[in-house]
Write a structure and sequence with these properties.
Low-confidence stretches: none
Number of strands: 0
Distance between the termini: 28 Å
Order of helices and strands: HHHHHHHHHHHH
Oligomer: single chain
Mean pLDDT: 88
Helix content: over 70%
Radius of gyration: 19 Å
Number of helices: 12
Length: about 260
């Protein structure tokens, strides 16, 4: 198990570095990109659209900061989903090796996505300090809070990586699915902005509790309700277990198809 974890981390590191190989700025692009995004969001939504977060909001920068927090969470999940269907063809040389543990490849995608999420969260916290003069100490709980979504992402990545071998259409469908998940989650609006009759449906989206909790933690310093958290964690663990089981069952046919 320790050997597999080391291998996942090393492959994840190589995955991150390979993305920026050959560029002038190198890995610093992972920091520059979210900074530029946040600056653009702040200007557009606070100065151009005069948008306010929630009913009766007065803080000009709150919309951009809340929006960026939602985009960070969605971006993590979106990266996992978009990469998964083409994962096995990308590592076809590993598929042909009987002794290679293919099940560690989907977690490599999750590790790579977590790295970029960490950088974006760091940018958000720096922006919060610049705008408001402080950072909530509760932000230290973010890794624990994100754990359920990480397990959901793992399950989906295992599932889609296996399906992508046999159904190449999955790769074409995922951009549409990712867009739907974004608009059906409170990325651009708080859950409270919806009529009460629709708010419950929003929580069928696995992104919703993660986005709402991350915003409350990072921007208001509020810890999640632990009962809801553990239910979410249980659902995440179940998702990971089902995804892994499907992958293990399907992987026997990978070499024949690829």
């Amino acid at each position: 198990m320790k050997h597999y974890l080391y291998l996942i981390l090393q492959l994840g590191r190589r995955e991150v570095l390979s993305r920026y190989r050959g560029t002038v700025m190198g890995i610093f692009w992972s920091f520059i990109s979210p900074v530029v995004m946040l600056v653009v969001y702040t200007f557009v939504f606070s100065e151009v659209f005069k948008a306010r977060w929630g009913v009766g909001g007065t803080d000009k920068t709150a919309f951009a900061v809340n929006l960026f927090a939602g985009i960070i969470v969605h971006g993590f999940f979106a990266e996992c989903l978009s990469r998964s269907p083409t994962l096995m063809p990308q590592y076809v040389s590993y598929v042909k090796r009987v002794v290679f543990p293919l099940a560690i490849l989907p977690p490599v995608v999750v590790v790579s996505a977590l790295f970029h999420t960490f950088i974006s969260v760091l940018v958000l916290l720096i922006a919060h300090f610049v705008l408001y003069g402080f950072v909530h100490w509760q932000a230290l709980f973010l890794p624990l809070l994100m754990l359920p979504l990480v397990f959901v992402a793992l399950g989906c990545t295992w599932l889609l990586a296996a399906l992508g071998v046999f159904l190449r259409d999955i790769g074409q469908i995922m951009p549409v699915v990712i867009t739907i998940l974004m608009f059906m989650a409170p990325v651009f609006y708080p859950v409270s902005a919806l009529p009460e009759a629709y708010q419950g449906w929003l929580y069928l989206n696995p992104l919703t509790p993660a986005i709402e909790s991350a915003r409350a933690l990072l921007l208001q310093g509020e810890l999640p309700g632990w009962q809801g958290y553990f239910l979410y964690l249980a659902a995440g663990l179940a998702s990971a277990a089902l995804g892994w089981a499907f992958f293990e069952r399907a992987r026997k046919g990978f070499a024949d198809v690829l």
